[in-house]
Glycosyltransferase family 15 protein (Melanomma pulvis-pyrius CBS 109.77), 404 residues
Amino acid sequence: MAGTQRYLRYIVFALVCLILLFFISSSSSVTSANWPSSYTGGDSAVPSPQPPHGKEQQTEPKPSSTPNNDKALPPATDAGERMNATFVTLARNSDLWEIAKSIRHVEDRFNRKFNYDWVFLNDDDFNDEFKKVTSALVSGKTKYGKIPEEHWSFPDFIDQDRAAKVREEMKEKKIIYGDSISYRHMCRYESGFFFRHPLMLDYEWYWRVEPSIELYCDINYDTFKFMADNKKKYSFVLSLYEYVETIPTLWDAVKNFTATYPQHIEKDNSMTFLSEDDGKTYNHCHFWSNFEIGNLNWLRSDAYIDYFTSLDHAGGFFYERWGDAPVHSIAAALMLKKEELHFFNDIAYYHVPFTHCPTGEQYRLDHKCHCNPKDNFDWNGYSCTARFYETNNMKKPEGYEKDQ
């Protein structure tokens, strides 16, 4: 009896397997649906007419990847007159991939609409890879210049032994870039020579861009035209206090200049941004010069050239470690009218380690900003931006209290 039941179970199991195999083979023989080539989905899609019966429709082979169709992109430029302006970057071949990131940010957020030129300067020759990559990224013309040796070397009035001793002392004190020769050449060059390079002589306006910067918001207007139309000559997005150890005698050199050339000092200046005691001492506030939009004709003026020459002969670029940021800032604050300086609250910017994220939620939403307002440095105690507002009797942006 038990054996008979076991045989019956085997027979039932075999029948179930045969039935399953029949259904599987039947379903696999069903032809899959052929969607018309024009169908892209959605209720409004209309299939293209099918060819007459018996004629095969000729179709082109499909590409293996999605093509980058330039015709589908928005217009490359905005209408309107362009200013005589350029971006300018001091870089070396080894900076290629970091400056490539910066260019991408500037192009995506601003320059794809305006196609301004870009000047690259180097104390050595740029190699083919640097030129090839950067020229492919920039929408305007690219120009590559080598810095003259006399602009990137110790001037003959500098005591080399004294300068070397200072570098060693700063190294021991762990002062940032304190022992660097190349950093000192860079600061001196940015302070007094970049605007005199033959390639820069073609332009009236400049926007300085450093490797590894980021722009966080769309810029939908021509910043150069804004500067010209509003009679601005120098602008910034971040301001802060300089390292005291790097500029111990800078203000003494400035006071020597102002005493020698009083005609170069503007009466309606921004001294209160620089000093709490009418110029007796310097509070170390400066505009961070890794971002600047400015007027080149002002930098080439007799007033600025006299100023730089006076500071240069004081020796502080090498006997201390004067940065181009306080040098530019002091000049702009003393030699320009208050209204000729501008704070670009709407240009969202990052350069390690500080962020400028525009104050004002609606602006950030309207301009597709991706910065965190909590990272905004403007109203931090180490920032000098509040002092700039006070100097110019400006009302602080609505909502600034939230960023403190």
Q: What stands out?
A: The chain has a mean pLDDT of 86. The longest strand covers residues 85-90.
